[in-house]
Amino acid sequence: MAVKIRLQRHGSKKRPFYFIVVADARAPRDGKFIQKLGTYNPLTVPATIQLDRQKALDWLHKGAEPTDTVRRILSFKGVLYLKHLLRGVKLGLFDDAAAMVKFQQWHEEHEAKSKQRSDDHRKVLKVRNTYVPPVREVKVEEPTNEVENASDETTEA
Questions:
Q1: d(CA 106, CA 125)
Q2: Interatomic CA distance for residues 91 and 104, integer angstroms
Q3: CATH numbers and ranges of domains, the chain
Q4: Residues of the chain with pLDDT under 70
Q5: Which H/E stretch holds residue 48?
Q6: Whole-number Cα distances in Å, 129 to 123, 148, 152
Q7: How far is CA 86 from CA 30, 72, 79, 95, in A?
């Protein structure tokens, strides 16, 4: 039986909300599933992702294939990086503690970048939502001396 980790759509029309599920590849998109791993809400900025890392990692080790979108989500949450590190442990490149230290370091950097992006987005929204009244340009005309202009015209003729 081919098993996929994929998105199951919920939510109303034009308001998508997804469950991240493990399902048989032959099952319909919104049909029967084996296990629910988390949720994904693409409408928030940044997108809200809640995921059970350990369950996702277990299913990846069992051979479940993620779809393209779920692969991006798993990569963003660090599950694929953790799988990569655990493969290095299995091959004897480094021990389990070193792998966890590397993952914790990556996770802290990733959280800092995500927080920075979120703060930048909030600042942009704040600037965009503040009302700035339009500035009118006032033309100031210089007073002209019509006597000088009249005399210039008579001398040219």
A1: 29
A2: 21
A3: 3-129 (3.30.1320.10)
A4: 132, 146-157
A5: strand 48-51
A6: 10, 53, 56
A7: 32, 19, 11, 9
Closest by Cα among 114, 30, 115, 37 to 79:
37
| Distance in angstroms between the alpha carbons of the first and the last residue of the chain | 102
The amino acid sitting at 45 is V
Residue-level pLDDT at 87: 93
pLDDT digits (tens, 9 = 90+) for 109-145: 999 998 998 888 888 888 887 776 777 777 777 777 7
Nearest C-alpha neighbor of 79 from the set 96, 101, 54, 100: 54
Cβ(18)–Cβ(9) below 8 Å: yes
Asked whether the whole model's pTM tops 0.70, one would answer yes
Asked if residues 49 and 70 have their Cβ atoms less than 8 Å apart, the reply is no
Question: Residue 119 carries which side chain, given as an amino acid letter?
Answer: D
Q: Tokens for 3, please give them.
A: 């098993």
DSSP H or E run through 104: helix 96-129
